[in-house]
Specification:
- The protein is an all-alpha fold.
- It has 16 helices and no strands.
- The longest helix has 16 residues.
- It is elongated.
- It comes from Flectobacillus rivi.
Length: 284
């Protein structure tokens, strides 16, 4: 049994009742066809209850994989996937693809949730980018939030599409694994353009998105920050103050000096991006 299989089994053992645990162990040690059938039929035998997981141990094996809010059913499905033999890449991919091709929504959630621990990660790039385009909220969330696969494997274009879709739909971008590490100039410029479009339509821009422009400032974005300071919206002002305090772009420090109360709050550590995080998941 691999390390990640052992970790997930420990979580199952901590949550499942005796009957459920016996079913899981029996199915996991079956042939591929039986595992595939068990993956589909899991809701008939496994409850949708909250799991208990040792996050420290999990993150030592798979950094940044957030599964603490999963149900037991979802966990069991992912655990079953890890028992499909992977020694022959072509056969392995075929077996996983069969599940993708026939999956209903909760099965898709489990499949996309499993991407960080499936073998041959490069084989799932098309599937993963398809999930980003999905109109099914829970499917998008399975790839977008608490999932390290996009951070590790997406191209810059695919990454930016993921972040922008979250922003367009007012989803909580801070839940994207590696959000600030994969910030890039193209994304920062697109966010500025997006802000101009929203402002022209008299609509707001989520304040926390400005955290992504800090290392990619230009004169246009500096002017955007000036607009945020003047908006009389405390969240916008907080975002502008944080960017100005974090960037080395010429003019940002002097801009912040025009707002001594905000500057003092930043220096005292009273302002943070965490205050601007949007936590609700709304499905669109």
């Amino acid at each position: 049994m691999t390390s990640i299989q052992h970790i997930l089994l420990s979580a199952i053992e901590a949550t499942a009742n005796e009957k459920e645990l016996e079913w899981v162990k029996t199915k996991a040690n079956s042939d591929v066809k039986a595992i595939q059938i068990a993956f589909v039929s899991a809701p008939r035998f496994i409850r949708k209850v909250a799991i208990r997981i040792d996050e420290k141990v999990l993150h030592e094996a798979v950094p940044n994989w957030q599964i603490e809010e999963w149900t037991l059913e979802r966990l069991v499905r992912v655990y079953l996937l890890l028992h499909i033999p992977s020694d022959q890449s072509e056969e392995y991919v075929k077996n996983i693809e069969t599940l993708f091709d026939t999956a209903e929504i909760n099965e898709l959630v489990a499949l996309y949730s499993a991407l960080p621990v499936l073998s041959y990660p490069e084989k799932w790039l098309f599937r993963a980018t398809e999930a980003v385009r999905s109109n099914m909220g829970v499917v998008f969330d399975a790839i977008g939030f608490g999932n390290p696969y996009p951070f590790l494997h997406f191209s810059e274009l695919a990454w930016n599409q993921l972040v922008l879709k979250c922003i367009f739909n007012d989803k909580p971008i801070h839940l994207i694994v590696g959000l600030e590490k994969r910030a890039n100039r193209k994304l920062a410029e697109t966010l500025s353009d997006f802000a101009h479009e929203r402002w022209a339509a008299d609509r707001k821009v989520p304040a926390q998105v400005w955290r992504l422009v800090t290392n990619f400032m230009n004169d246009t974005i500096l002017a955007d920050l000036d607009k945020l300071f003047q908006s009389n919206d405390i969240q916008n002002q907080t975002a502008a103050a944080l960017v100005c305090s974090e960037t080395t772009f010429p003019g940002a420090e002097s801009l912040l000096e025009n707002y001594p109360q905000l500057r003092a709050s930043v220096q005292k550590g009273q302002l943070s991006w965490k205050q601007l995080e949007v936590h609700q998941l709304c499905y669109v």
